[in-house]
Amino acid sequence: MCPDIEIIVGTYEEYLLGYQIVEEEVKDESKMLLKQTFADKSHTGAIKCISVQGPWVASGGSDERIFVYDMRQRKLSQVLLTHSGTINTLSFAPDMSHLLSGSSDGQLKATRVGSWALAGDWQKAHAGTPITHISCHPSSKLCLSLGGDRILNTWNLVKGRVVYRTNLNSKTTLGGAPDCLSWSTDGEHFTLTGHQVLEIWDIKTANVARRANTPSRPMCVAWVGETECLSGLENGSIAWISLTDDKEAEPKLLPAYAARVKAVACLNNTLVTVSSAGEIKVWRCQLEKRELTFIASVCIGCRPTSLGLVDLSLIESSATRPKQGVPTVIPTSKPSDVEPALEIDTPKGFVTIEFDDDAKPPPTSKKAAKKPKKAQMDFDENSSDGESQAFSDSDSDSNPEPTSKKGTKESAKAKGFVSAEYDEDANADSSDEAIEATPKPKARKSKEAKGKVPKPAVEQDSDQSSSDSVPKRKRKQPPSHAPAKLKVKKQTR
Question: What angle do CA 375, 376, 378 make, to 5 degrees?
């Protein structure tokens, strides 16, 4: 029967790849093959770790970001930017309540699943040293973390604090960098590895319950049961270790690859392994015989870093498996060769119009070319003529018109803009002020001033002609002014 799982692989080439096991007929025989389902390149750096729980897939990389994917809808759900260093380890709580993350900046953070709000932040969880491993207990109440200080911290996730510390500096068998921190399925044991040794610790006694010497360095660990543990070695073999054996018994070695085993993962008695050369293999575990039965394999063409398995039987979505009868394009080369196909955007159907700012429309007539419109006038801040043109549209100086309030009082302030609108009430007030500011001509004493014929006022003030900035106001002439023109000529000083 075909395992209902999806394999998630993180790579150094910034790709997050997905594969599913499908059954096809080849030469009248039914065979299981691994088909690629997606290839995502959201990270801008190497992917360092992957954590899978239920429909959620989280990946962290050297770009200091965490990408969370929802496999029910098969899309990116959230991007977490809470760390300021390379994400070294990720671990979902089994009850899918929180996502724990540790980075090279020494911070351990807990993020709520769903709202993706920060629930816990421990700046110096391991005295400021990088956090290398995090593993949640199956009860979701405890957590183990391992850092560069070689201190194993036991966290109470209910209270959010460390309840127990184990100094591994005295454990000479583990060497200088303990690795492969992993809980058993029942939560009674956890593993730690050294240079050529794997130790299984009992949480009740806080001591080593099983120690297995391996011919090569253990690179990864996966539990297939409460007492059965599998470890991928650097020489390409898989070591089968059982708690039912003696404490110092040799593990059973199973050949798998010519290169080292980079990552292993187990789900529903199905073991998935990937080598440093990029070859994925799927095995069926036989617990009674302690044997592995080969199912399918594929070469991804990239250097893998981490591995995770999604249980498709728990996800109610039609998008979990490709539809039958519809051909699926599966790249046969490296994901880098199919990268341009992933970034092609569908045409949107919009029109872009470009304007040339330097190009000016030709004048429609000679008059339009000679006399520019008010909206097309250029205002020069250093020119005093620009102010007069802004507020006056007269062609000659013979008939000056009264200016508005903005033209008289705010002429010195009107720099940087031109306004052709003014208030009518303000214009009335400004005309009165202009009249008062204009010097009045002296009254003439004549015989006609007694009420016979009013005479026009003659402009004789020399100071008045020198001031051009203040507009002049013409007095209204009476209707009887026409017959008095001869008398004006005779009056001389």
Answer: 110
Residues in the chain: 493
Give 78's contacts (C-beta < 8 A, 6+ positions apart).
67, 68, 116
Collapsing DSSP to helix, strand or coil, 258 comes out as: coil
Alpha-carbon distance of 484 to 455, in angstroms, equals 7
**Rounded Cα–Cα distance for residues 213 and 196 (Å):** 6
Query: Residue 465: helix, strand or coil by DSSP?
Result: helix
431's enclosing H/E stretch is: helix 424-437
Contacts of 221 (CB under 8 A, 6+ apart): 180, 182, 191, 193, 198, 229, 230, 231, 232, 264
H or E element: which one contains 7? strand 5-11
CB 241 within 8 A of CB 230: yes
Residue 15: helix, strand or coil by DSSP? coil
Measured on CA atoms in the order 361, 365, 370, 373, is the torsion positive or negative? negative
> Please, are residues 209 and 243 in contact by the beta-carbon 8 Å criterion?
yes
Beta-sheet pairing, 142-147 with 131-136? antiparallel
Please state whether the predicted TM-score (pTM) of the whole model is above 0.70: no
Angle at alpha carbon of residue 491, lines to 489 and 493, rounded to 5°: 125
Least confident piece of the model among 1-10, 66-75, 289-298, 330-339: 330-339
pLDDT digits (tens, 9 = 90+) for 147-184: 999 999 999 999 989 999 999 988 888 888 899 999 99
Tokens (6 digits) for 7: 């394999």
Beta bridge partners of 184: none
Q: What is the rounded CA–CA span in Å between residue 292 and residue 334?
A: 29
10 Å Cβ neighbour count for 384? 9
